[in-house]
Amino acid sequence: MFQLGGLVVTLVNGLLGLILWRRLRAAFPRHGALIDGACAAALLLLGHPALLFAVASFSGLRAIQRLLPDPLSMIALGAQVSLLLYGLLLGVVAVARAVVRALRRAGPATNRRAATDAQAAPDAPAATNVAGAADAAGSTSAQAAMGARAVNAPAVGATRPEAVDETRRRLIVGATWALPAAAVAVSMGGVLASRQRPVVVRVALPVRRELTSLHGITIAQLSDVHVGSFMDAERLDELRDAINAVRADIHVITGDLLDHHALQLELSTRLLRGLRPARGQVFFCMGNHEYIAARSASIPAIVKGLEEAGAQVLVDEAREVRLGADRLWMGAIDYPSRARPGEPARRPTVDGLARALGQMQDDGAPRVLLSHHPGTFRAARELPFDLMLSGHTHGGQISLGRIGDYALTPMLPAGLYHNGSYEHRGRRLHVNAGAGGWLPVRINCPPEITLVELVPA
What we know:
Elements lengths: L1 H26 L4 H25 L1 H10 L2 H50 L4 H10 L1 H18 L13 H28 L5 E9 L10 E5 L10 H13 L4 E4 L11 H10 L6 E5 L2 H7 L4 H10 L2 E4 L2 E7 L2 E8 L15 H10 L8 E5 L4 H5 L6 E4 L11 E2 L2 E2 L12 E5 L2 E5 L16 E9 L1
Parallel strand pairs: 1-14, 2-3, 3-4, 4-5, 7-8, 8-9, 9-13
Antiparallel strand pairs: 2-14, 6-7, 10-11, 12-13
């Protein structure tokens, strides 16, 4: 599937490159050789990530990350996004032109219908009489007009040079540059935005007023760090400092701390050891990339490394968290997928939910569920819990805003719950936009730390 996606993107790259080349050649006819060389070089820079993806799937992408310095690989992937944005802009412009043409065609048709209706009016016979009366005089005038046209007509075979509309030419040249320039500017801005300090998104969780020890308690969520995908030690230190700066009582990590190999456990545990929650507890749920990384070692080895670094790894289970005279329940659901060869069989999501929630007493204390995949909320939203914290989607990494529950991101066709907060009959879900990602571009979707505050209901 991933190789097919890479092949499709490669073909799209070629088509968009051809369109851009033809537009540049038409706009700058005197610089054909320069345009040919620049387009060829740019297409090689833009096309190789998708081409490697098509040939070697994720291994090709990992080769880029492993062999190229981070700045070069980030520029290459950012340039790939810019080319796809250019295609999107071309599509928007084409649709706008089609709408304008349709409106223009509809206008003359309306005018013609109005003229026909006017001719069919009751006074048409009178107009016919007037026209008949003018026929005699009109014949003489027509002969004179024909003579005048014969005098003024150009010689047979002569061609009149077509005037060049300089204003129109300048507009065409400007449009030729404007669309790709806008795509490059937005994409490269997205590359820089992916490295910015995470924003803190605040979520309120109402709790019973009599649970006074819980009022003001905070939970900081970090998700989808993807150690190893453009996430080096320096960037990890920035994330550690950012989450420690919010001074939350409890820290939770909702999966994909590692990216694809057990060797990334060393940097991952460095981050975990640097966390300083005020109450000293860090909870962790498994993401799909923890299982991907475990293929180079084993799942017990990954879990053991995380727990030795101070994380409480919860797999379809729950823990009681005592806070003064009151308490809350913290549970986590395993990543919902089928086990691969060599992996232990995983419980179905419904069974995992029943197991985790079955370990939480129905005593009025708030119940928080960690689930890497937000799709779990669909199966859980009728069950007794208060808040689910998820990740996995990276918020789409490109966001055009939100209409109701529909976040306008590339992830929208893949599911409803993929960015921000949702609610269903009192059950709440928050999907963290993630701190990292294997594509180093974020447009209107900055890295995120979620801060949940327990407030009196």
